[in-house]
Amino acid sequence: MLESTIDLADVAPEESPVLDALEQFAQFADEMVDSEKPNPISWEGNPSQVAVRSVGRVLSKWRHASKPNRPPFALVVRLARDLPSVLTDVAGHPKRILQRRRAMEPINRLRELDSSCVRWLTRQPGNTLAEKSGHRRAVLAVQRYESVDTLENRVVRDLLKRCIALASDYLRQHQSYYPNHDWIRMTDHFRKLCRRLESLPQLQEVSGLPSLPKPNYVLLHESRYKQVWRSYMEVIRQQRRRQQLWTWRHQAFADMVTVAWMSSASRGLADRQVRKAAHRFDLRIRETPLQGTFFDWAALPPMWNLVDDTTFYIGPIESIVDVARLVKSSGVDLDIAKLSQGFSHQQQGTFVTIWNQTKWNVAKLEISFAGDTERTEGIGGCSENEALVTLVDCMTGMQAGKHIVPLKLIDNPRSLDMLHHQWCLS
After folding, report:
1. Which long-range contacts (CB under 8 A, 24 or more apart) does 222-230 make?
2. Does the pTM exceed 0.85?
């Protein structure tokens, strides 16, 4: 389970501009996974929980992902639309079961005994039932009573708590910008409903969930609780993903920079045919991020043919073989011995490579945030709403450049245009 891999010193904070930006990017990835469209030029599909989308589709979605007139359609908005009637029904009329417990029962109301009660009775002094009942005229007996403390109702109560947290976080991020939008109002009403339902007397009898439960028959097949369980698992997945994005926040933001930089490279191409060729490459997008990245780089991103026979690449480079394959594909006379000095072992991360017939450069992207004080020294650091992108030359190990970019790159689709021009076109 995910919780076993989390460093307790690195638990995701309740509020963080970095997390807000990463969750916005996660929403972008979700929309790409869910938006499969027939395309006569490039095939699209979702094999093995990986969405195959063309670079052109991804960049088009990137440029139009930010909607200035509405907040994002997040999971909590859909829950606010679909769940109120179901939650009102199950919280107001929770499923009850008849349970048994042993308790002292007056002999005039005695109905049932089990083996434990009989053993208790034989140990009492006296010969008759009246004598054994003592001065209280009561004996240990089995009582039957109705209880709402069932697994399915524990899931309902936990879902209400998690929905309150999700709605509060969504409103914190967007209510001040879109106070009168229908989704904001609907989410606010949903939060108030969840708080009211959680405080109902019958749900106060329901105990909490110590861990993720295995669903029972009711959660899987009863119409009301089946919808509750499906929504509960969606909320759990999103909250686990939030923790994973925080743990791997630098790699996740590097993915954002990769898409933003490819968008800048595409926008800077004057040759339409060259742009179309790059846009036909496939990107494989995971439904669930792995170590912070949504991309499965089994299919490498495109190489961008810029001006003056210069080629640009941004993406993963694991070894010298990848670098040699990329650079030699353009006919450059590559000094393998010199290059191996910078790649003496496998390199993981995101790299920027640019080459032509006379030169080539390979730099690794390093991401820093406001809290990473050891990385942000030297240029005055960056604010809590910004990130520092550092390019480190793989040959010399020296810094080749530092650039401050906004955290929410989706809201600023042209924010890397200047960096692209300085690094690739100057």
Report:
1. 222/95, 222/152, 224/86, 224/89, 224/90, 225/90, 225/95, 225/152, 225/155, 225/156, 227/82, 227/83, 227/86, 228/83, 228/86, 228/87, 228/90, 228/152, 228/155, 228/156, 228/159, 229/152, 229/155
2. no
